[in-house]
Specification:
By secondary structure, the chain is of the alpha+beta class. It has a single domain, classed as Alpha-D-Glucose-1,6-Bisphosphate, Chain A, domain 4 (2-Layer Sandwich), CATH 3.30.530. It contains two helices and seven strands; from the N terminus they run βαββββββα. Strands 1-7-6-5-4-3-2 form a seven-stranded antiparallel sheet, covered by helices on one side. A hairpin with a 4-residue loop joins strand 6 and strand 7.
């Protein structure tokens, strides 16, 4: 299964990052390409991409606050993003692990670019307060 990890340090407290990560309605504020999110039941959401605003992507979001983790799984592509908040000397550190099924391996570099941009935007948004 292809995948990758990206890391960043954020000067904002972990709580500020958590506020942006745990709430799927706020993903559009920082996740590159996300146009809007419609809530569902039990962690299910439907996301819409800016490139294809009329195409629905059923997605599952699970949070583990005690571990500082949010796992976002696209139900169409089976691409999984695991966002983790870790302690750091000042603020917090963020780790993103992305796993793609073999059938989606051609999207690896596009996913990497989107995650890098999303991570940059998440840090900036958290640091703004």
């Amino acid at each position: 299964m292809p995948g990758f990890e990206e890391r960043a340090v954020c000067r904002a407290p972990a709580q500020e990052v958590w506020k942006l990560l745990y709430d799927p309605a706020r993903f559009c504020e920082w996740w590159a390409g996300w146009e809007r999110v419609e809530p569902g039941e039990g962690g299910a959401v439907t996301r819409f991409d800016r490139r294809w605003p009329d195409f629905a992507y059923p997605t599952n979001v699970s949070t583990r606050r005690e571990e500082g983790r949010v796992v976002v799984s696209c139900q169409l592509s089976d691409i999984v993003h695991e966002w983790v908040i870790e302690p750091a000397t000042e603020g917090c550190a963020l780790l993103v692990r992305v796993d793609l099924p073999a059938e989606e391996s051609a999207r690896l570099e596009d996913q990497r670019a989107d995650v890098r941009e999303s991570l940059r935007r998440l840090v900036a948004r958290a640091e703004e307060g």
